[in-house]
Amino acid sequence: MESGGTMQADEQSPLLPVEPGYKSVLRLRYAISWGTLALVALIVDRSVLWETPIGGLLPLAVLAIGLLATLVFPARIYRRLRYRLTGRLLQVLRGWLFHTDTVVPLVRVQHLDVVRGPIDKMFGTASLVVHTAGTHNSIVTVPGLAPDRAAEMRDIIREQVRTDFE
Amino acid sequence: MTDGEIAVAGPERLHPLFLLTGIGRGLRGLTGAYALVAYLAVSGKLWLGLTIAAGLLAFSIISVIIYWRRFEFRVGQDDIRIDSGVFSRTHRSIPFDRIQDVDITQGPIARVLGLARVTFETGAGSVQPGKEDGVIHAISVQRAGELRNLVRARRSGAAPAAAAIEASDEAPIYSMTFPRLLLAGTFNFSLALFAGLFGLTQTVGNVAGFDPFERSFWERVLSAGGPAREYVLLHPAAAAVAGALLLVLAGLLTGATRTVTREWGFRLDRTGVGLRRRRGLFTRTDVTLPTKRAQAAILASGPVREGFGFSELKLQNLAGDEDKSGNHVLAPLATGDEANRILSALGWRELPDPVEWKRVSRSFVWSFLLGAAPFLIAGAAAQVVFLPLLGFIWLAVPFALWFARQLEWRRIGYALDGDRLLIRSGWWRRRTTVLPLSKIQSIDLRESFVTRWFGTASLQFGVAGGTALAPHSIPAIPREGARQLRDRLLGSQP
Questions:
Q1: CA nearest B317: which of A82, A159, A129, A135?
Q2: For B370-405, how does the pLDDT look when each residue is reduced to its tens digit (9 = 90+)?
Q3: What ipTM was predicted for this assembly?
Q4: Pair (B77, B151) in one structural domain
Q5: Interface test with A, best of B441, B450, B469 (most A CBs within 10 A)
Q6: A110 in contact with B, Cβ within 8 Å
Q7: Are residues A156 and A87 in the same domain?
Q8: Which CATH number fits the domain that encloses residue B411?
Q9: Total number of domains in chain B
Q10: Measured between alpha carbons, how far is B146 from B363 in angstroms, rounded to an integer?
Q11: B471 → closest Cβ in A7, A136, A140
Q12: The whole model's pTM is what?
């Protein structure tokens, strides 16, 4: 299940998992966004729905879904997230219900970012963001990398970048 | 024009008449404000509305004057420099070597006044679409032409090309006669006018006190004309037929008007670097499409149009077309031979005839129905609960979906044609896409929890230009086949 299929002569470079810390990053992110949503639901409930028969139900429902998402989703997303960097290609597998397997030829890369947000800093991860010229899927992200690894990958890819819009 | 003259060229301003056209442009941008003013006027605060309107007008005039005062451009030795901005000044330098081409656009007012808008196209549009690279809003047409020739002459190694451009006596690659134009309009049959009217009456009609979608409106209209009412009441069937005819006529007229004004005088020429397209009745545009920037070619058609052997040829480019629709129209209505001729003018091979299309899996139909099943069941349940008398109408929906999907499935195909991929899709909106493999920026292989049961995956291609909403893709290929196809497509990368 975890094999990304045939990638020609690049079979020897394996599909790598990202840092386990990424699970915590996801958990915190989900907790923040669902917590905000629950708060909004609570305010709506108190101001609009309190008198109706379904009063009090909405924030509870949101809280339940949010808890489920925070506890269950991160581990599954983490398990599916794999990447592979070969001499020619960057491959990223992600998604739990909807699998996406993205391949970017390194010569097609336009520019590169290494991004570290505040949550990333807390758990020692970083994201590598690869920009291509494509309109669809122009930004390919590899999240949850160790900062050193992200910088290393950036340097490897940078060697390969060449533009042909001249 | 000698070199010395150019080297010392001083700063130039926009044409003074920009003050006129610029105000028009500024006022057009204030749609939200009009709604506010109209609302105030309707709700009885007429004076407040008028004051705001006057304020907006004054604001537009002043900002246009300031813009004009603070906008300068100069032609340097190696570049064009544009200085703009009121508080934060921007000094932009566009090297001649980076200018892909110069587009000249003339709106109806600008044509009367002899003005033109010049856009310097650079490759940067691909990174931030919609951002103005270098636009000079209003200079005289003559000066615009001079600038274009200057850029072409200055661009290193393009000297012979510049000579070729002016040889416009040469027969065009493609042009449209008036009958062809009308035919194209017929195929662009559109009920957009009615949709617009419907939307308008739904929003404004309440305030204005009429709604043509109410029976009482027509009763009032008809009571004004006695004989017509008698007739309608006596012959309802005839009235329905007349109404339908009217609808068709209006649809035809809308399509024809839109097409004729946009494509009037359509002409495609070959130039040194690519193709040059001129078109437009009121707004005349003159666009050059360098061959190097072409990303994909799309032949768009419909069941009727294709039956007559016609299709529309579009070119996916790094920058979008002037109406921001993404793709540049190369021929609004072309026969297969004409399309092939344009393709070879681009330096592309003609389409093979016939193409050996590879079909996709039937899971295209069944996985879609399975994915839609929860909604269909919910709809059926809702109908049984709320509208039990209407019986089994909802049962027709799955069959309609199945049939539409089946029709589409029969059309979908793909083929590898040497160094390019051909994709065919759609039954109603028929598309044949020619995608050179070297223009593929990335490939997504997608599976969902539904298609996984069928063992199929879809491929989506990241290509520069076009719209992000509808990427080029091939649905429902058996998983292993999809992986092999992806490897083959990427294997032939440079």
A1: A135
A2: 988 888 888 888 777 777 666 667 778 888 899 999
A3: 0.78
A4: yes
A5: B441
A6: yes
A7: yes
A8: 2.30.29.30
A9: 4
A10: 58
A11: A136
A12: 0.73
